[in-house]
Write a structure and sequence with these properties.
With 158 residues, the chain is mainly β. It has a single domain, classed as AOC barrel-like. 12% of the residues lie in helices and 59% in strands. An 8-stranded antiparallel barrel has the order 2-3-4-5-6-7-9-10. The relative contact order is 0.16.
Length: 158
């Protein structure tokens, strides 16, 4: 068997294994030099830290986000905005590390109910450790106010 034939069979075998064992899972995809990622907020069971809020995410990134609010204001329209310094502590592809983000959060309450909530989290350049050493990019979170769920999408550049 030639080397090229062996490589093709190996790639095919790996693709079959990934399809069988990864059915329904989203794998990171490269997009214009960046790796596309996604997942959801799955709870607030992160350990105690000196933070104003903490939440656990799952998906391509697994771990906890801790935030300290640095600015906030509520507008007469019911729109609330805040800025926070954050740190993600967790894993990517099974490898651990951390990176810092700046959160820009907005939500609006109408008639006592949350109408929308979303936030942007650019990664602070040079803040990554471990698997995230040298990472840049951004995460975006969006709440589905009807279903009561939150998802994140984003891009990482290594």
């Amino acid at each position: 068997m030639s080397i090229n034939s062996f490589k093709r069979r190996l790639v095919l075998a790996l693709a079959i294994v990934a399809t069988v064992f990864g059915a329904g899972l989203s794998a990171p995809v490269s997009a214009g030099g960046a790796t596309q990622i996604g997942g959801s907020i799955v709870g607030d069971d992160c350990d105690e830290r000196e933070a104003d809020y903490a939440f656990r995410i799952d998906g391509d990134l697994n771990g906890c986000v801790y935030g300290v609010i640095t600015e906030s204001r509520t507008h007469p329209s019911g729109t609330y905005q805040e800025v926070a310094d954050e740190i993600f502590i967790g894993t990517y592809l099974g490898h651990s590390g951390t990176f810092e983000m700046t959160e820009f959060y907005t939500h609006k309450v109408v008639d006592g109910g949350l109408q929308f909530a979303r936030c942007k989290h650019p990664i602070v350049r040079g803040s990554g450790t471990g698997v995230f050493d040298g990472v840049s990019g951004r995460l975006d979170f969006k709440d589905d106010t009807t279903a009561g769920t939150s998802v994140y999408r984003g891009h990482l550049r290594f």
